[in-house]
């Protein structure tokens, strides 16, 4: 089985990282940047449209 990852980018501090969609909340839920603790909807952290679609799929 191939693991799926989404690329995330904080719109406030610019931190970028990868995470498994299974370890993340739904795209509309509030998410906090692990670096600067900015709070936004998870969908706003998706780096690309493809990453957002992957989040929505899981």
UniProtKB/TrEMBL annotation:
Instruction: Name the domain of life.
Output: Archaea
Provide an example Pfam family for this protein: DUF7836
Report domain DUF7836 positions: 1-58
Protein name according to UniProt: DUF7836 domain-containing protein
Organism, per UniProt? Halosegnis marinus
